[in-house]
Amino acid sequence: xxxxxxxxxxxxxxxxxxxxxxxxxxxxxxxxxxxxxxxxxxxxxxxxxxxxxxxxxxxxxxxxxxxxxxxxxxxxxxxxxxxxxxxxxxx
Length: 91
Prior knowledge:
Number of strands: 5
Structural class: mainly beta
Low-confidence stretches: none
Distance between the termini: 23 Å
Order of helices and strands: HEEEEE
Largest sheet: 5 strands, antiparallel
Radius of gyration: 13 Å
């Protein structure tokens, strides 16, 4: 992904691809996981760490406070507290 937010090239050999999930599906998936009073942004396609870890990022807020980051992939959904750049389980 470039600094302008565009995907320069995307390919795969076997496995799955985050491109198999679109922004609408990502938003619908996260909508079912929100707590009462929690709102979400539009999904943004991101690269979350190691090669091949592309996902749709959906940021949530409770009031004016950032709450969670949801990452939606064909393999499922994972989340971190808003602002946590790395998954401590992978370090």
